Amino acid sequence: MKQIILFTVSLLIAISTQAVETEKEFILILNSTLANGTWDKDFNKELQDHCHKRSNLYLDSYTLSFPSADTEKDSKEQCARILQKYASNRPKAVVIIGAMGWHITSHLFETTWKDIPVILCHPLATLPNSLQSILAYEAPDSLHITTIKELQKHYNITFLEQKLYIKETLRLMRALQPEMKNIAFISDSLYMSHMVFSKVEKTVRQHYPDLKLIWLSQRELDLEQLLDTVSSYDKSTGLLYFSWHKPQQMPSHSFLADNIGKTLTGFANSPLFTLKDLHPQDGYFGGGYYVSASDYATDCMRIIDEIREGKPASDIPPDAGQSTPENYFNYLDLQWFNISPQLCPDQIHLYN
What we know:
By secondary structure, this protein is α/β, with parallel strands linked by helices. It contains 12 helices and 16 strands. α2 links the parallel β1 and β2 (57-63).
């Protein structure tokens, strides 16, 4: 009898909670197909905290699947599942992480959810114009990219750039590793990695022409080969990690293996620097120069507040946010890799 009473009470609480939530506005995050990495988790948590501070707002998230070979059919199926899940309560706004997430769900915002505002989070000012471009594993030419301003002509969408501060990150790397002669860029071979490597290549050529740039790409190396290569480097080679896309055994699913940092750190002879916040306080990545996931979530919430006040997303200019990027580093990495704290820049946040 006691168990029946407890079950009934729990059921009533769940029903009442659901009833309260349906009376509130809610923000939906459509997580990228690759978005169970460190940055995405931190961003989701920070945005959730912002929503909790507003009594009439809550946040829900939905993780998309990696598209199958038949991308058009797969996208429609994923859109149908989203519509079914949120049939009784439409979101006030949708935050989409990554260009792949946008292309999988754009059909929603051409039809049933045409009026719902979208905030697209993306690291570059341009994005590929199709899923095929993203899945081609090569950098598209100018015919295969588009801009948010073009999208704003057809969709109720705006853009919050996850800006990459490559020159500043390289400056931090050189400050902490003055003996550095090479830069090893570690990434998978997806579209975004091609585009970012091109930007790194251009930055090195313009600002650090004495450095040799090496691309440790998943297209050329498996994980074991990557670890062997990294372990062969000394401090004359700086390590700049971007992403490592790891397919699962199940079809139609993939994820970013940011936990590769745990493995790489055990093999590396110098810190792993990054171009975005991968939580250096955990001790697996050294750090870098970027806008923190917390500050990025604050910028996103500012845009959400504008939308809730009645401003169409398409009227909000695409930008890189208002937060200031800063140097972040894990102090324990200084000790682990025998780097003198005196080499740190004056303005740096040291964790641990």
